[in-house]
């Protein structure tokens, strides 16, 4: 007979012992009869401590507890005898042996033959291995469990002593295997498995955390957050505690959409703060692609290498500035060197184009640059502080213990750079600028490296490397003349080389002849004017384009933003997206357009200026602001495209509460947006373009397009809260509405500015704009618009403590909405009126108003505002002494806020839940909930964080110290 094979993969020969399930003894794969329950219990005791003395007294206590029979020792001797006989019947030379050793017995056996010890060994071996091998070993260990431990052993004492430890070992192996599978990106399969496990072990925080993470990675954000609330509620009800700090930390990261939660989907280093669920922090790798065919600059490269050496020796001089004229190759040198030394910066490389000398766009503000880099470092968009100084502090904290190379390209002045400098000596900063930035030399000890144009020999070498190898050898004199005509500027040389490579039949002399032809020569092909030299090189590429591609290139000069998509280019050119993409890729082949990402195109800053110069000079015009009829129509098509897509996308974020409607325009080809996540993704990607589009529409006098485009960003602004952009575009929108005397536009723009200032904690400024909006509403004679402004006025006057005035506005708005039959806006008036009644001590009236508003917001399915009203209900209920009722309101508010993704409402719910716990004397729970509220308020930059800090600071000192 062939021996049976153990399903766990263990050897099928010799003795094997199984306790992880019904107890079994196998000899060569054949199960042996063990005997009575007493014999089985005795063997179990010995197996669980192999090769160790198990005292007689412990065996007796395990078998009989506090009431052993008088003949217990004799009976035990009999059990041992039967086991010895069982083992002796085997011919296995390595058969186990029971030896008498005072004060008990020893079972001499290979511990690997006992499934419990083999499982423990597999679990221990798995630590530190790669995820795939770790998962395999842990899966093998888990397969050893065949059911409840010692399922057929009757000793209750033995079960109490043994089962919990082995059950815990199994759960540990299971959690570790899940963690390995999470590292392997198997989250979709884990969601189902973990859902069952969490039902089996509902208080197991690590399993819940792993399910939250798997659900989040699988795209089920709401379910991930809901799991946390289910566990929190269960812990509160059954144990009177809240989830531990690890799970709370994970939940808070979920709220922020922390990129580092994506695990193996991004490059990571281990985050020791939350090891249980595999959360890491991203390693940025933002350097632009290395420049092909880079030559020369040995002196500057040596100087930069020397700076790196000084850094390794602990020097504090960790800042270098590359200066020189436009097109001289500062960025190329910086990027090339950065790639060469990238391995010296294991924590990554950050990159920012500061637009210091962009002729059409303002320099990138330090706050904007910090926002971008904080996102790259793993900070969620809604977690970035409002104040620029706070952003700088967070940025420096994140880099404090990291070795990062920071490349800041095209800086305008020292003040633009200084907030972007890390605070520690671990990171190195490389800056490029057309100016020397002496302020950085004086205050920050920067090393300045000025760049000159390339010498002729090096320029010829660049022509060879960037174009067709051997060009200079075949026509050495022409190659030298071409290098000189390009002024030694690397950008011009590369474009010339690309032209030669695109048409191998054309000789270098032919290109030189074209450059020197007076019919095309620009007087600016002069070494003293680098910008003009670059433009001359652009002329060469442009004149050889297909007419359709040339027209496309010119029109791209109208694009307000830095990058654009195929859909945007299609709208601009009046074609379909596939055709637009073909045109753009043809331009990319001519090095006139870049394609930094999928369906994302861009132009070098100087190329964009050149394209705009072409527009301005095509009919003798001097400025882009006087567009031809054709160009005016193209720009309007682009702005109309942004209006249509923005209107479509905003409706996934919140209900549209105005009369603007562009989304139904079927003549515009728009990207596929079918969900809230996709809408946010589109707004995030296009945000800088939308801001620039508003500015251009305003500047070009297209005011009837400018202010509606601003209004269509409102729902996105409410989610992301980019305060500087919010105020900037609404100010531009207000200018446009005033320019065309559009009363509704002026009203909405003023109201939007009021919201921005109010939500950022500036009620006095908010009042100014709300008052302007109110005055405009009075001139329109529209009762609905007037009531809208009165609601706003009531809210801000309430915040300013002017309660009587607030009450008057709220009552008038309430009456107007009831007359109009507008239940949705009636609810807003009721909510604001309730706040006034609350501060006046009329708590029952306040609660009655809030309950009316609650019903109306449920009807309108406005979850964010419903969460606010529920929180208000909870606050008033607690103030009335109805603690349990108030807690119920706050719990529901938390669930509603979680479902719609409103962080500020969730924080308010935690604040209220902490208040309810405090009111009933549960200070520990109050502290935990207030700490959670504080974290979220700080995340969204809310001024209410100060309120929570005060509550935490006012907790009894004796409790805090205890």
From TrEMBL:
Coiled-coil blocks: 833-863
Occurrences of domain OmpR/PhoB-type (ranges): 2-109
Signal peptide: none
Pfam families, per the entry: BTAD, TPR_12, Trans_reg_C
InterPro entries: AfsR-DnrI-RedD_regulator, BTAD, OmpR/PhoB-type_DNA-bd, P-loop_NTPase, Sig_transdc_resp-reg_C-effctor, TPR-like_helical_dom_sf, TPR_rpt, WH-like_DNA-bd_sf
CDD domains: BTAD (cd15831)
Top-level taxon of the source organism: Bacteria
DNA-binding region: 2-109
Keywords: Coiled coil, DNA-binding, Transcription, Transcription regulation
Family of the protein in this entry: Belongs to the AfsR/DnrI/RedD regulatory family.
Protein name, as recorded: BTAD domain-containing putative transcriptional regulator
Organism for this UniProt entry: Saccharopolyspora taberi
């Amino acid at each position: 007979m062939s021996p049976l094979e153990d399903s766990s993969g263990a050897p099928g020969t010799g003795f094997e012992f199984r306790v992880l399930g019904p107890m079994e003894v196998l000899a060569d794969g054949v199960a042996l009869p063990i005997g009575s329950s007493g014999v089985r219990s005795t063997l179990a005791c010995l197996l669980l401590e192999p090769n160790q003395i198990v005292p007689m007294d412990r065996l007796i206590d395990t078998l009989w507890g506090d009431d052993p029979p008088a003949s217990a020792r004799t009976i035990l001797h009999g059990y041992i005898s039967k086991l010895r006989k069982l083992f002796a019947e085997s011919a296995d030379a390595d058969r186990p042996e029971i030896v008498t050793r005072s004060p008990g017995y020893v079972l001499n056996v290979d511990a690997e033959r006992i499934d419990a010890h083999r499982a423990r060994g597999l679990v221990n071996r798995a630590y530190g291995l790669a995820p795939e091998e770790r998962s395999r070993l842990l899966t093998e260990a888990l397969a050893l469990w065949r059911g409840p431990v010692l399922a057929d052993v009757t000793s209750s004492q033995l079960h109490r002593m043994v089962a919990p430890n082995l059950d815990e070992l199994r759960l540990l192996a299971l959690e570790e295997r899940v963690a390995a599978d999470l590292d392997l990106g198997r989250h979709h399969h884990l969601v189902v498995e973990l859902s069952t496990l969490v039902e089996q072990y509902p208080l197991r925080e690590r399993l819940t955390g792993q399910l939250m993470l798997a659900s989040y990675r699988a795209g089920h954000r709401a379910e991930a957050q809901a799991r946390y609330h289910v566990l929190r509620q269960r812990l509160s009800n059954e144990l009177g505690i809240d989830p531990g700090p690890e799970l709370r930390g994970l939940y808070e990261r979920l709220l922020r959409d922390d990129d580092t939660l994506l695990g193996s989907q991004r490059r990571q280093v281990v985050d020791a703060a939350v090891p249980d669920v595999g959360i890491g922090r991203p390693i940025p790798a933002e350097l632009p692609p290395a420049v092909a065919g880079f030559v020369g600059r040995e002196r500057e490269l040596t100087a930069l290498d020397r700076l790196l050496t000084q850094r390794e020796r602990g020097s504090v001089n960790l800042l270098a500035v590359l200066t020189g004229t436009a097109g001289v190759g500062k960025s190329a040198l910086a990027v090339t060197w950065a790639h060469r030394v990238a391995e010296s910066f294991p924590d990554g490389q950050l990159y920012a184009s500061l637009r210091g000398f962009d002729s059409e766009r303002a320099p990138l503000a330090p706050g904007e640059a910090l926002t971008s880099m904080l996102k790259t470092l793993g900070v969620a968009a809604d977690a970035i502080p409002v104040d620029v100084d706070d952003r700088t502090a967070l940025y420096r904290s994140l880099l404090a213990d990291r070795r990062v190379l920071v490349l800041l390209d095209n800086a305008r002045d020292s003040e633009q750079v200084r907030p972007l400098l890390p605070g520690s000596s671990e990171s190195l900063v490389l800056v490029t600028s057309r100016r020397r930035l002496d302020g950085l030399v004086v205050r920050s000890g920067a090393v300045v490296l000025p760049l000159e144009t390339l010498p002729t020999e090096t320029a010829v070498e660049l022509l060879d490397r960037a174009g067709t190898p051997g060009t200079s050898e075949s026509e050495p004199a022409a190659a030298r003349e071409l290098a000189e005509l390009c002024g030694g500027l690397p950008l011009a040389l590369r474009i010339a080389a690309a032209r030669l490579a695109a048409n191998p039949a054309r000789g270098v002399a032919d290109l030189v002849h074209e450059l020197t032809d007076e019919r095309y020569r620009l007087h600016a092909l002069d070494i003293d004017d680098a910008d003009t030299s670059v433009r001359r090189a652009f002329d060469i590429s442009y004149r050889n384009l297909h007419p359709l591609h040339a027209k496309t290139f010119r029109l791209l000069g109208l694009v307000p933003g830095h990058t654009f998509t195929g859909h945007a280019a299609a709208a601009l050119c009046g074609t379909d997206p596939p055709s637009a993409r073909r045109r753009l890729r043809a331009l990319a082949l001519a090095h006139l357009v870049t394609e930094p990402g999928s369906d994302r195109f861009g132009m070098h800053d100087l190329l964009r200026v050149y394209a705009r110069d072409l527009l301005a000079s095509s009919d003798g015009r001097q400025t882009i602001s006087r567009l031809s009829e054709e160009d005016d129509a193209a720009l309007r098509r682009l702005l109309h495209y942004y209006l249509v897509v923005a209107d479509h996308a905003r409706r996934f974020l919140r209900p549209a509460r105005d009369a603007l409607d562009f989304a139904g325009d079927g003549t515009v080809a728009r990207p596929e947006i079918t969900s809230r996540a996709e809408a946010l993704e589109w707004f995030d990607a296009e945000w800088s373009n939308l801001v620039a589009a508003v500015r251009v529409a305003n500047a070009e006098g297209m005011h009837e397009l400018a202010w509606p485009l601003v209004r269509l960003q409102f729902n996105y602004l409410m989610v992301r809260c980019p305060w500087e952009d919010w105020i900037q575009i609404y100010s531009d929108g207000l200018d446009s509405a005033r320019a065309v005397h559009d009363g509704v536009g002026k009203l909405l723009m003023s109201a939007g500015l009021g919201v921005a200032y109010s939500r950022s904690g500036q009620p006095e400024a908010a009042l100014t704009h709300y008052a302007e909006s109110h005055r405009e509403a009075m001139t329109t004679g529209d009762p609905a618009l007037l009531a809208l402004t009165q609601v706003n006025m009531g809210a801000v006057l309430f915040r300013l403590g002017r309660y009587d005035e607030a009450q008057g506005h709220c009552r008038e708005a309430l009456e107007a909405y009831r007359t109009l039959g507008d239940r949705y806006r009636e609810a807003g008036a009721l909510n604001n009126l309730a706040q006034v009644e609350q501060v006046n001590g009329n708590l029952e009236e306040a609660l009655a108003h809030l309950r009316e508003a609650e019903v109306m917001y449920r009807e309108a399915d406005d979850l964010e505002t419903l969460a606010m009203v529920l929180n208000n209900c909870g606050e008033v209920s607690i103030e009335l002494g109805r603690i349990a009722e108030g807690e119920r309101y706050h719990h529901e508010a938390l669930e509603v806020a979680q479902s719609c993704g409103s962080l500020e409402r969730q924080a308010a719910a935690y604040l209220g839940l902490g208040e309810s716990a405090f009111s009933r004397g549960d200070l520990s729970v109050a502290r935990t909930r207030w700490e959670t509220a504080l974290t979220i308020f700080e995340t969204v930059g809310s001024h209410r964080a100060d309120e929570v800090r005060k509550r935490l600071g006012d907790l009894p000192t004796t409790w805090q110290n205890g």
